[in-house]
Write a structure and sequence with these properties.
This protein is of the alpha+beta class. Strands 2-3-1-4 form a 4-stranded antiparallel beta sheet, with helices on one face. A hairpin with a 4-residue loop joins β2 and β3. α1 packs antiparallel against α2. The longest helix is centred in the C-terminal third of the chain and has 17 residues. The model has no long low-confidence stretch (mean pLDDT 92).
Length: 83
């Protein structure tokens, strides 16, 4: 099964990316995912279910440790097949 996760971390800072946002980006960019799109107001990553779920776990834990007070995410099944 293939999954796509879309997420944002808060609080926002329009002047510079806060530590929790940088950590979240590092997590998804280092994960074994097929596609990662990082933007100023939202991020998207896609890959096999195991890789996405592992990245989401790390993203939640590390972003909270880095000061996130809210993490919004949406997880969608985008295809069937091998991970």
């Amino acid at each position: 099964m293939r999954l796509r996760v879309e997420f944002t971390t808060e609080p926002f800072d329009l002047d510079e990316a806060p530590a929790h946002a940088l950590v979240a980006r590092e997590v998804v960019e280092a994960a074994e995912l097929d596609a990662v799109d990082v933007g100023p107001f939202g991020n998207t990553a896609e890959g096999g279910a195991d890789a996405v779920l592992t990245a989401v776990d790390a993203l939640l834990r590390k972003s909270l440790e880095a000061g996130a007070t809210r993490i919004s995410l949406q997880l969608n099944v985008v295809g069937e097949g091998k991970e």
